[in-house]
Amino acid sequence: MSTKVLLCGVGGQGTILAAHVLAQTAMECGQKVKVSEIHGMAQRGGAVTTDVAFGEAVESMVCDAGAADVVVSFELIEAMRNLPMLKEGGRLIASDEIIKPASVLTGRAPMPADARGWLIERGALLVPAHATAVEAGNAKASNMAMLGALSALLPFEAAAWERIVPDFVPAPTVEANLAAFRAGRAFAAEKVM
Amino acid sequence: MELLSGNEAIAQGAWEAGCIIGAAYPGTPSTETMEAFAAKEGVYAEWCTNEKVALEVALGASAAGARTLVTMKHVGVNVAADPLFTAAYTGVGGGMVVLAADDPGMYSSQNEQDSHYYACAAHVPMLDPADSQEALDMAKAAFELSERFDVPVMLRSTVRISHTRAPVQTGARHEAPQRPYESDPSKWVMMPAFARPRRIAQLERIRALEEWADGSELNEQHGCGGRGIICAGAAYQHVREALPDAAVLKLGVTWPLPAETVRRFAASVDEVYVIEEASTYLTDAVRALGIAVSSTPVPLPRAGELTPALISRAFGAASAPHADAPEGLPARPPALCPGCPHRLVFKELKRLRAIVIGDIGCYTLGALPPLSCMDTCVDMGASVSMAHGFELALGDGERPVVAIIGDSTFAHSGLSSLISTAYNRGSGTICILDNRTTAMTGRQGNPFNGETLQGRPSRELDLEGIVRALGIEAVQVVAPNDMQAVRAALKGATMAADQLDVIIFRSPCVLLSRAKDAPYMVAGCTGCGVCLSLGCPAIGKEEGTGLSYIDAGLCIGCGQCAQYCKFNAIVQAR
Q1: Nearest to B303 by CA among B112, B162, B107, B128
Q2: pLDDT at A42
Q3: Are strands B126-127 and B253-255 parallel, antiparallel or unpaired?
Q4: What distance in Å separates the CA atoms of residue B405 and residue B502, rounded to the nearest whole number?
Q5: Which residues of B524-534 are buried (b: 16+ CB within 10 A; e: fewer)?
Q6: Which terminal CB of chain B, N or C, has fewer other CB atoms within 10 Å?
Q7: Backbone angles phi, psi at B96, to 5 degrees
Q8: What does each C-alpha distance from A32 to A7, A28, B230, B363, B512 come to in angstroms?
Q9: How many whole angstroms separate alpha carbon A42 and alpha carbon A45?
Q10: Closest CA to B407 of B474, B480, B491, B327
Q11: Do A44 and B167 touch (CB under 8 A)?
């Protein structure tokens, strides 16, 4: 059986990059791995999901409802939308950030009432990814803060992740991205313990 | 091992096989294949105006002795079908491989047709990789196969093969010396007298291919007895996960069907099932062999992608327990970018109550609310020709008929439609939204921006000059960011009911430069909501007050919204 991680969010948030770092780390740690991305229309501010599966053997690249060991959402509404993907006993971690969809912006649809409360009630770990990234020195590194939080739930050592991260981010931002990763990992490790 | 997408793996396989020339038109999920190929050493690659042209460029290079790769999405095969069917008569010189990337589930397409039917109809062998390693290996094998049997070979992928990264063992390039070219009209001039013997040769080739398919190691049987599943491509991976104990025949060769292999498999199991996505191609082909194909206890969906859970459920398993999402969550469809310079064209067409005949690309997003400004979208170039049809049927109707097409789509096949309308003295208004790129697929070059795939110097084609050369006098170039200019141009063109007007709205895609001006802000909003009707993702409505606000992080300072605010409440933050 493979471990399945579903990463979701809004186009442009860096979910695919985070998925690539996860996949590369898993591979370097001797796992088989598959990453399924959806391109095209899913960009342009639409909802995006990327499925990562790793383990001794990996077959399907697709994650079904009730099949994800971990759901990592980069946004709270997308966390609610993708909660059904989580298996019983799986972990949901979400960036404590809301990006209003167009229908809400233009007043055609209401925001879900109390997204945070709803998610916390269902066991979600909310990560202050944006604030963590800003503190680490680069607001765009919130995807690394989320990846750090995810890393606390997975069996790969911190050093393995930190070897991979620099290959995936622009050279001048490596330190900030690593700092965001470490802070996200520490945050989740403390909450999960 | 490195993690490669199926597309990158196909490019790598073609390169390792000594392929030296690539031709394509971009289309999701195929696009990155030619981009990855173009980045390799010792190859020539180009974007063509459309898939038919790409296939013909590749066929010419193949005839001249070079190994060639041509890539397209599934609907591109429709465009390229004409040369494909006859290339299956001429055969090849150097090996020629055609990638058809299908999109079951329609993540980025207007239909979910199955390219297997093309292979079958054109009598072109088809290979179906089930992961990135197979994509590489089969791309290499396809070149050998193409030269051995003197026929183009199709690779069929789907979005879950093309866009899934998996570990791949890459290898060295095998230089394939270009085959010497010698004129041979009996092979290459497909006039009836020469085509008839080639048709006979094709039938003989099919027999040889059938024999080859049955001996091919690209088909694999796993297990025997009990429940037997026949499948190919991504469906194989879902089947293995959903039914780990079932016997499986994975078909690497899906045309011609390896008949004896399938019969042997059927004889080795108690029941035969065929599992495939959004199609009955394989099921029908297996049944045509006289093999009884069982139906799953619960029918599999006929539309859309398969997943492991759908397959488990088809055999009676319960769904995995899971929580439900709350009801009424706001959907999050894609939208035109903040500051897209072409947004106002849709806003103004809606104001005109025009019948808007749309086309493929970013501009299809104008169909979504709040712009909601599109009556049709069918295929590349259809806006221009369908608008002509609307004009013919409606005559001087109450509502003006306006076609909307992007620059790359116009080069792809809108131009030939416009020639036809001009020739037939059609009327109406054609808007070419020229954003200087092929935006939706990731900003590729095209003839109107003069950018080539490998950065070779070219030139920008003179779009208005081309339109004028068709005898269309009413051609104007308009800055689409200027509301008054857009309104005046559309009003003038649609009032001239008996005239064919072409308006070129020219402004580059905001993703090309990512330049930002100072953002706008709202001060003194009355809550009229006009700015919200533009559908700009940077503009929102405050809950409670109903007043508008602008997200300074998303706003690029285009100023479109300020032009619509009658209360001068939208100002630039200088």
Answers
A1: B112
A2: 55
A3: antiparallel
A4: 11
A5: ebeebeebbbb
A6: C
A7: -130, 125
A8: 18, 9, 25, 40, 37
A9: 7
A10: B480
A11: no
ipTM for the assembly: 0.96
Q: Tell me, what's the pLDDT at B497?
A: 83
Query: Is A59 in the B-facing interface, judged by CB distances under 8 Å?
Result: yes
Residue in B closest to A36 by C-alpha: B164
Q: How is residue A189 written in tokens?
A: 């490790």
d(CA B378, CA B359): 7
pLDDT band of A40, cuts 50, 70, 90: low
pLDDT of residue A108: 87
Two tokens, residue B382: 């259809």
Two tokens, residue B284: 């029908």
- Token pair, residue B42, equals 């010792």
Output the pLDDT for position B97: 99
Q: Is A123 on the interface with B (CB under 8 A)?
A: no
User: For residue range B107-134, what is the model confidence (pLDDT) as tens digits?
Assistant: 999 999 999 999 999 999 999 999 999 9
Q: Which helix (DSSP H) or strand (DSSP E) does residue B73 occupy?
A: strand B68-73
* Chain B (389-448) residues lying within 8 Å, Cβ to Cβ, of chain A: 440-442
Residue B409 has pLDDT above 90, yes or no: yes
The predicted model scores a pTM of 0.97
Q: Is A77 on the interface with B (CB under 8 A)?
A: yes
Distance CA A138, CA A133 (A): 6
pLDDT at B395: 84
What is the three-class DSSP state of B450? coil
